[in-house]
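Please fill in the sequence for the structure shown.

STRUCTURE ENCODING:
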């Protein structure tokens, strides 16, 4: 049997990631270096290092940014408290939050005004979860996995809603919500699915190719929730083994032993050049036959943040 690669499409930046990276680059053009970014603009090592080389300084907290400087908030979103600190420090703040994350923030605000307890399905410590919960910290309870549901205590079991982190596994989220509904039969659903379209599309693509592979290689960083989920989904749907790498040179030759078909996919914050680099490396190992498997096409784009549009940057 000939060696081959099944390349899952779509790949490359999703609309939210593209918008966030473009926001930082446009901020550099307008204000000059340094531009500060709170946390990583997106969860990808290569992207962060590339922006650092252009004069971007990444910080963990807003109070690390010198007063009066320009700061960009990452695609994962921030809480109102972070915006307030930026205002107090007279920072020129530019919000690169993905609009899909902003949608979840607005849902938190609406549910809180309706005096509902909000069960936020997500991973503890993730920046998106911290920013989302920060919209109404006295109303939000984090649900990090099914095991945490049995210990949930809410003021009124008839006034409970749920929302989710946008980069979760679709299947895992559905299972968690089903368990929540057993615990709270009157659980209120969000008006629309919170899982990012790009996260869903990439998971659907890997589900299609995983059963046909001996090995799946996911290009992405270890702190990228959607990339880590792709490894898990690949294993769940039949890949004999699956691994996460940032770069082609991280692939272990031992992974290729006895392998005929390799599945390749990437997280939503991974530049296409890294996937191309992996494909080139695999071709050198005899896996030059590449079949693209497309389950969905992506054409969505997002407008730049209002702060930059006011400056008439195109």
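FILLED IN BY: designer on duty
SEQUENCE:
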């Amino acid at each position: 049997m000939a060696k081959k690669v099944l390349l899952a499409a779509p790949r490359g930046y999703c609309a939210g990631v593209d918008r966030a990276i473009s926001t930082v680059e446009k901020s550099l053009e307008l204000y000059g270096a340094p531009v500060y970014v709170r946390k990583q603009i997106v969860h990808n090592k290569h992207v962060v290092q590339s922006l650092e080389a252009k004069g971007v300084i990444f910080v963990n907290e807003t109070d690390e940014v010198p007063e009066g400087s320009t700061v960009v908030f990452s695609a994962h979103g921030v809480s109102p408290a972070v915006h307030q600190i930026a205002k107090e420090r007279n920072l020129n703040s530019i919000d690169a939050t993905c609009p899909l994350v902003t949608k979840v923030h607005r849902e938190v605000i609406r549910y809180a005004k309706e005096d509902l307890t909000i069960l936020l399905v997500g991973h503890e410590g993730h920046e998106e979860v911290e920013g989302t919960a920060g919209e109404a910290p006295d109303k939000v309870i984090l649900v990090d996995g099914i095991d945490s549901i049995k210990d949930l205590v809410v003021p009124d079991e008839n006034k409970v809603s749920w929302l989710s982190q946008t980069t979760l596994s679709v299947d895992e989220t559905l299972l968690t919500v089903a368990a929540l509904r057993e615990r709270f039969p009157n659980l209120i659903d969000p008006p629309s699915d919170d899982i990012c379209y790009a996260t869903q599309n990439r998971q659907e693509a890997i589900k299609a190719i995983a059963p046909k592979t001996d090995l799946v290689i996911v290009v992405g960083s270890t702190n990228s929730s959607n990339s880590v989920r792709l490894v898990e989904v690949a294993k769940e749907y039949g890949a004999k083994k699956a691994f996460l790498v940032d770069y082609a040179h991280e692939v272990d030759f031992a992974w290729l032993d006895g392998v005929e078909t390799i599945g390749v996919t990437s997280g939503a914050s991974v530049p296409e050049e890294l996937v191309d680099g992996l494909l080139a490396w695999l071709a050198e190992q005899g896996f030059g036959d590449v079949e693209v498997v497309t389950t969905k096409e992506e054409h969505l784009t997002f407008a730049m943040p209002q702060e930059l549009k006011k400056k008439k940057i195109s």
